[in-house]
Amino acid sequence: MHPELIDTLVIPNTTKIIFLIMDGLGGLPGPEGMTELETAQTPNLDALAKKSVCGLLDPVGYGITPGSGPAHFALFGYDPVKNNIGRGILEGAGIDFPMTEQDLLIRINFATINSDGLIVDRRAGRIDNETNRRICQKLQENIPLDGNVEIIFQSVKEHRAVLVLRGDGLAEEIQETDPQHTGMAPLSPRALVPEAKYTETVLNGVINRAREVLSAEPKANMILLRGYAKYRKYPSLFERYRLNALAIASYPMYRGIARLLGMNIARHTETVAEEIAILREHYQDYDYFFLHVKATDSRGEDGNFDGKVTVIEEVDALLPQITDLKPDVLVVTGDHSTPAVLASHSWHPVPVILSAATCRPDMVAYFAERDCIRGGLGRMPMMYLMGQALAHAKRLEKFGA
Amino acid sequence: MHPELIDTLVIPNTTKIIFLIMDGLGGLPGPEGMTELETAQTPNLDALAKKSVCGLLDPVGYGITPGSGPAHFALFGYDPVKNNIGRGILEGAGIDFPMTEQDLLIRINFATINSDGLIVDRRAGRIDNETNRRICQKLQENIPLDGNVEIIFQSVKEHRAVLVLRGDGLAEEIQETDPQHTGMAPLSPRALVPEAKYTETVLNGVINRAREVLSAEPKANMILLRGYAKYRKYPSLFERYRLNALAIASYPMYRGIARLLGMNIARHTETVAEEIAILREHYQDYDYFFLHVKATDSRGEDGNFDGKVTVIEEVDALLPQITDLKPDVLVVTGDHSTPAVLASHSWHPVPVILSAATCRPDMVAYFAERDCIRGGLGRMPMMYLMGQALAHAKRLEKFGA
User: Model ipTM?
Assistant: First the structure.
């Protein structure tokens, strides 16, 4: 279906597009035989679905359960497989670390090892954020430049941090050092391809030095490395679609993903109501708005069916504050499914509403998985959603004569 | 949709998957305006459809009528176009011939030519199996090694046999010698690419010698060659999906295809009831079961609408013996459509049921082509079915962070 074709057809316009993303929206039937979305009382979403075109989106592919990174890339029209993004980049993006194309980003988990060097706690007793910051500072001060490679420690939270190696000739094909079980020694950061040998040497130096520096720490006396990812620049939403975009998201990872794709990032918020207030405040300033609701996914991950239902109902109640703006295109969907009965992300497709004056309505009258099967968008790979939004916003010209 | 991605996400599990394949299942309306499947009384399949997710599968592509080889490759998750398999390989697999990567396999049709060398019967009066075996023996004894190429004749049945050339430098790009009409001379096995010149020379030698050897035969006095296929090893279901598979199929070709993909092959059976008995007997021994019902296709090919309806009803009556096993995933579908009104394979998509505790039910209440259009799987390329089955059996890990 030629995903790259869209880019060649983009024309400027003043129309406005809103993506309201309820993370992990799709579900599975609970005890009553209905999904979370089918259970929730959602008069506003149902009314919107009725005058819109609906469908089901596959985030990555049939049967594929996506992580948050690939799922959001697909939402924004980026092939989630070609652009598969390492955990290190996601973490770096989430703390707003200014990445350069010389950077290898690595997720650190602080861990506890015993006197035999065996791991007794893979999360160092989930040390507090204050301890995390103190330890990162200590590592930064005591682990100097290694040859030509600059070494940067960045605190995240609890037991998590980011290690950045900055220099030439670094490679990401390195074995993760977390053996995934306690009672074992950390693995070595072995090069998986010959080109990564230099990186292996640098990392061995960092790990050995870190162990010395942390030897007196009661809990976080070791670092475990995973999610090696070389930073590379992605074309932005402005470069691809001429969209001046604002991301409104409370969780760091989603702000990070948005920043990777060149979006502007709204100030931090705690609630969906606050997010919508920011949307309304800045509605004249941008063309495209990514409004991210995390709690649907969190309740799903917790296996909290009723909690997820409640979050959906809360969003529904706030919906008029968005539709009042009369955006040219309003998309309501999720990035993937997180059925409470599975308490995890899943491979099931995600229901979607695309509302626009230019849309061709279908016979869907309720916003629910089972109804969206009959929607006019059909069952569609998620990466094509952005093209649909641009078309409905009259931001694509005709292809061919 | 990145078909190869599935392979990288496979994780071991102890869950069980059954594929119940009714060959040629899809149909077209008969005199009463209903398809074979719509006409059949199938209370068990309908009940299964009601609590499952349904859909329609395109074996190869829109409008493409598949042979049995590509259709089964697609069922097992192998791209049917990239892995298009020559008739020679299928024939060889069907007689359990031990192929090597030096082999060029060729389907032989014994034919009758007159004194002018023109074909008068392209099937040599469908000689009996005994004659076939005797002739193959005679050819084998009288056509020695040609240079460095070993020449092997293998009897199949009636007018059909397999010729194997074993050696280095053989190529499959050779013109078929069957002119498809009587009253014409056999075509020559002309090389279609320069690299096949050597093979052409070898085949001319074999054909000329075979004509001499068979000159006294009353019926089978000539060989016609088609379906040239160089053997290559396919990755097995175990290598790709970590599935220890059992194929339960009565027809040689399907056993052959299963063997090509590394499945274990159950002992020969005559009836579907016997096939299900084997399934139940070996249920603890394997992860994946391919249970093949041939008669739906045979009745369709015969143009026997009512006969096909009856076969479907017989399978429906036996279904509880399969569902009783409570497999984690039960798929019921066909490899392609064989509408009795066409008396041949066709391009129409095939209805499918995917039953699993992890499936998201849709509104389909009857297992029939027309109902499955509204199924939650949508209309899907058949090659993605296996990924769906693995996902629902919790045999795939998450993609990306």
Answer: 0.89
